[in-house]
């Protein structure tokens, strides 16, 4: 793939918005090494494939020899973003943010070349920023502009407290862009207000305004956005077999989107899968290729091949996997109703899903189909209880 094809894929593959696209395309076609800013909010540690979408785009920039600049919000994370929240939250301690960041970085290196990444903790400049400098930054905004933000507007009208600290949040982010001299910033659409706010801050400090690239959220099989809140995500550090099985659960209508969002295949390569759909080929075959591509991306070819064999063996032959391939969970109680344990073991995210699985005869306990919603499971601390859902989900359960 030549440089022009790389740029086309970078600008078009699963990109929601670019501000300013003409400016960014011109920069990409020049010989300038761009500084691509991406920030890590260390209030959480698990990266799932929705989080990986912009990181895969960072990889595309990296392959064009641009400089990736990761900013870890060890300072900003103590304030918290309310973009999609209706209240404040308790502040994190600095040591918590540092530990979370370490875990996060260990997963990011599955995607990026660590030797070519510039990493900063924004406490480097935030801890030494004077109050006078905050005045200089703050004068670029009005209270009316901040209240125009949808979330603040709703809370203000409902007489829900908004702290001045929260008002300063987008200013802190913009100051990051100034300090690292960012040429481009990438993130999801939920930060659109903040991303726009940072550009005038750069301009106020005699820097060229950064270009912005944003992405849509990823949907899961329940048609809600992939989220730890809903427990409907695929983590990057999942075991290859588990990741393969989860990807095979993706709705047929989402398969092409996942090829675009979650793989490194080019737009031209993805067209081949689109044609297979149009030809009427069984979507299961195409999903097998999707699962293989995604598992390979994070776990190498050998693991992807083994995961595919595992899936086909278990699904096609109705066989229980080897003991070593079944996750063991230790739960607090020694007895659970069947629907309760399906949720407690994180096999299903909702009671509704668990109830349906039981009533439809999809659940086996130690090899026996159970369709009684009042069935009680007695756990042992030594002898495992095998829970099987359909032909793909297995958990061995012990009590404490």
CATH class of the largest domain: Alpha Beta
C-alpha termini separation: 55 Å
Tell me which oligomeric state these chains represent.
single chain
Please state the CA-atom Rg, rounded to the nearest Å.
Answer: 24 Å
Q: Shape, please? A: globular
Note the run of SSEs as H and E. Answer: HEHEHEHEHHHHHHEHEHHHHEEHHEEEEE
Low-pLDDT stretches = 81-85
CATH superfamily of the largest domain: HUPs
Strand order of the largest sheet: 1-6-5-2-3-4
**Strand portion:** 5-15%
Describe this structure in words.
With 400 residues, this protein is α/β, with parallel strands linked by helices. The chain is built from 17 helices and 13 strands. Helix 3 (49-63) links the parallel strand 2 and strand 3.
Summarize the structure.
The chain is α/β, with parallel strands linked by helices.
């Amino acid at each position: 793939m030549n440089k022009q094809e790389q740029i086309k894929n970078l600008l078009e593959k699963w990109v929601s918005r670019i501000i300013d696209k003409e400016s960014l395309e011109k920069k990409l076609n020049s010989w300038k090494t761009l500084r691509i800013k991406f920030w890590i909010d260390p209030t959480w540690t698990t990266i799932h494939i929705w989080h990986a979408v912009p990181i895969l785009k960072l990889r595309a920039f990296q392959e064009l020899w641009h400089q990736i600049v990761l900013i870890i919000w060890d300072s900003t994370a103590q304030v918290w973003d309310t973009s999609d929240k209706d209240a404040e939250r308790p502040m994190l301690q600095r040591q918590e943010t540092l530990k979370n960041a370490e875990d996060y970085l260990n997963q990011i290196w599955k995607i990026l070349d660590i030797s070519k990444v510039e990493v900063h903790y924004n406490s480097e400049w935030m801890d030494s920023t004077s109050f006078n400098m905050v005045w200089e930054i703050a004068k670029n905004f009005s209270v009316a502009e901040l209240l125009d933000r949808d979330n603040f507007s709703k809370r203000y009208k409902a007489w829900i407290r908004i702290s001045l600290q929260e008002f300063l949040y987008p200013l802190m982010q913009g100051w990051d862009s100034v300090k690292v001299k960012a040429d481009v910033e990438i993130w999801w659409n939920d930060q659109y207000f903040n991303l726009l706010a940072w550009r005038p801050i750069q301009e106020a400090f005699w820097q060229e305004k950064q270009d912005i690239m944003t992405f849509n959220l990823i949907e899961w099989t329940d048609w809600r956005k992939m989220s730890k809140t809903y427990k409907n995500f695929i983590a990057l550090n999942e075991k290859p077999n588990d990741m393969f099985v989860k990807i095979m659960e993706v709705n047929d209508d989402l398969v092409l989107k996942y090829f675009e969002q979650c793989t490194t295949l080019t737009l031209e390569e993805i067209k081949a899968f689109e044609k297979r759909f149009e030809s009427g080929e069984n979507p299961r075959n195409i999903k097998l290729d999707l699962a293989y591509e995604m598992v390979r991306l994070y776990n190498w070819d050998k693991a992807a091949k083994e995961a595919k064999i595992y899936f086909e063996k278990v699904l096609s032959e109705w066989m229980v996997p080897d003991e070593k391939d079944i996750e063991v969970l230790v739960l607090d109680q020694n007895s659970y109703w069947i629907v309760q344990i399906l949720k407690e073991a994180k096999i299903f995210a909702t009671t509704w899903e668990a109830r349906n699985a039981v009533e439809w005869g999809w659940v086996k306990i130690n090899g026996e189909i159970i369709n009684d919603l009042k069935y009680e499971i007695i756990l042992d601390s030594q002898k495992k209880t095998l829970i099987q859902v359909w032909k793909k989900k297995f958990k061995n359960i012990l009590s404490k």
